[in-house]
Amino acid sequence: MHTLSPTLARRLAITKQRLADPRPAVDPPGILEVVRDLGCLQLDPISAVARSHQLVLWSRLGPYDLDDLDTLLWKDRSLFEYWAHVASIVLTEDYPIHNLLMRRYAAGTPKTPRAKKLRQWLKDKAGLRRHILGELHRNGPLPARYFEDEARSDWYSTGWTSGRNVTEMLDYLWTKGQIMVAGRSGLQKLWDVSERCLPKWTPREKLAEREVVRRAAQKSLRALGVATPRHIGLHYIRGRYPDLKSVLSELQSDARIERVEIRDGGQVWQGEWYMHAEDLPLLERLEIEHWEPRTTLLSPFDNLICDRARTKQIFGFDYTVEIYVPPPKRKHGYYVLPILHGDRFVGRIDPKMDRTRSVLAINAVHAEPDAPNSRTVSRAVAKAIEELAEFLGAKDIEYDRRRMPSSWKRDLTA
């Protein structure tokens, strides 16, 4: 069994997340390479700085062309939007993994009150379902408001549909894999039937549940670097890993994954920790200090930190999203980006992109209590913020000088 120090565990996780070592190429193949390693990109509508999935890619690639991402989504169709650990961008090559949920959603005998309620709702709204699918076959891609308008004009008086029902039906058909997001107009989704969205090369094999769990667990573990069963189960296809411990035991017997221990001095971290066998050469490289760290900023929903408990355990970094906290009670800010420097989180910034003036406003910069005071760190942080401004197309950066570490002020405002 391999023994890792906490530092080595952090570096393995960061490297597998493509946040260390040379950056991938800034082009569609490079973007695809990053998504392949991460497994999915969480979608979130908040754009105080940029959309979360755009920031996740920027943290790994540096400034890139958003049109390249659109090419992969809407032209090549190498990526599509689906439910991973939340609504996410996923790989078309992984379609068989996601297809299990499509096949099983709302299928079989109802066993829970929610399932029974869904079945009755689907029975009551069978006409709405047929209408949406028919319109998409004839006229797609279409936005949700097209069906809401139809519901109000044609069916409102019957009392069996509404804008809410339209949204829920679109979500149901999407989860079932019958329709897909075919494009976007701003934040507005454009829906179409799946057969027109999926490329001909899409893998179509129907995998058994255990095989899906075997594949997904390995993708999750490889993206995390080192993880416990709980961590694996909360990543990638979150919550859809039945009999995970048995699958992990089977993968270990097959020499696909290995048990490791993390030892901090004389203390061994609790829990069963695993890493993928294919990552052993990387571990050996990191053990001899072959480590090329970077300094960057992360989205609040970045794959590295979306499991807050794991983030605190491995990195000692306590991060909370304060978007829904009343402004007077916020400790750090509205849409705060953690600062990753090497294998440590050294601070966080509270930014806001003013698109009208093309200015990136930095409302605050917070240093962690144990953050180094060296100018090497402050210069690296300043460079990361400048790189973010470049990506956003900002012509200037405005700092609130009253809310930044005094030891970093010289380089941040130079």
- Annotation, overall tally of beta strands: 15
Count of discrete alpha- or pi-helical segments spanning 4 or more residues: 17
Hey, roughly how much beta strand do the residues contain?
Answer: 15-25%
Could you name the ranges where pLDDT drops below 50 across 5 or more consecutive residues? 151-163
User: What general form does the structure show?
Assistant: globular
> Going across the major beta sheet, what is the strand order?
11-12-13-14-15
Structural class: alpha+beta
Outline the biggest β-sheet: 5 strands, mixed
Work out the helicity level.
40-55%
Oligomeric assembly: single chain
Could you report the average pLDDT, rounded to the nearest whole number? Answer: 93
Task: State the separation between the terminal residues, measured CA to CA.
Answer: 49 Å
Radius of gyration: 23 Å
Task: Give a verbal description of the structure.
By secondary structure, this protein is of the alpha+beta class. It has 17 helices and 15 strands. The strands form four sheets. A five-stranded mixed sheet has the order 11-12-13-14-15, covered by helices on one side. Strands 1, 8, 9 and 10 form a four-stranded mixed sheet that branches. A hairpin with a 4-residue loop joins strand 13 and strand 14. Helix 5 packs across helix 11 and helix 11 crosses helix 13. The longest helix has 18 residues. It is globular and about 65 Å long.
